[in-house]
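A sample copied in:

***
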Amino acid sequence: MSPAAFRLTALGAFFLLVTASLPGAQGAATPPGPAAAPAAPAPLLRAAPERPARSTAALASTSFGGIDHVSATDLAVWLGCTGAANDSARKFTLTDKNNPANRAELNADGREALVNGLRVFLGSPVLLRGGKLYVSRIDAERCLAPLLRPAFGGVVPPPPKIIALDPGHGGRDDGTENKELGLKEKTLTLDVSLRLKKLLEAAGYRVVLTRTEDRELSPRKEIDLALRASFANRERADLFVSIHFNAATKDTQGTEVFTYAPRMQHATDWWGQLTRDDPDLETGEQPANRFDSWNVALAAALHRQLLQTLQTEDRGKKIAHWAVLKTLNCPGVLVEPAILSNAAEARRAARPEFRQQVAEALAAGIRDYAATLDSLRPR
């Protein structure tokens, strides 16, 4: 999957508004099936969780490079954790006072954290200043808190009942290919999605797919991506999972999980670019940002189950400006279980047994996410 393929251009945003207003436009994203009586139009926006119930606003703030930061020691207190730094103060560990397994490790000058054993990429580097480590306020609230203290996320979403699955690509868009093995991403994503649909329906969920056959929702890539989110919104989905298979160098392997980037944060992959210009950086909040905390909670559940089930290398939970997630009215993630440009992983992906494992891992992750939400509701 090419990162460039998932950027929603200004033209694409315009077409989204136009197509959403045209009669039958949203129906273009509906999988084929028996005719149904016209339904009342769904509201554009569903009730969304309020802003985090607990914010870092009370913590002392220090600005570095125009970005507000909080000290790791203050963050530990706010999260109800103990905080410990090594002798050089370049590493800081936050540990839950009541559950030592609930912990995060931060490293100076790095964006990579280890949270409950999972590799997690922050939106900004952790900074060492005056013998103390500092974390951006956004990362504290929208990344670390959802992982260590999901109760801080505000109003808990309703129990998931309707799940939207998005088999990536389709039609003329093959996605990533491994020509040596004759593999096309669009075929594998649909196969995994159909397997996952059966598992979720057996568990009592209602499942809708953005496509059920080899087709694209629109010949224009930016509109195709926007229509997938629009379809999930129209179906009033409670969560959304976009399924893909990755492409990278031949030696690269592993599993990645993406959420939509919080406002004012660069995509994970931007940090490796040669240019400092970032046309995708957004200063305004997008619909997906209303669910930042719950996106992270969902991603963590899927991330853990994928790694445990597939025994793949952990390439991390990352953030991006994927258009397929941008306008969602529910928590959503994009998963990349394996890399087709890697010969060994491509051979695994070619096996139906592996694709069944992917589906089972995603189903287990969704169950774990639902259980987390249930545990946060008042008794």
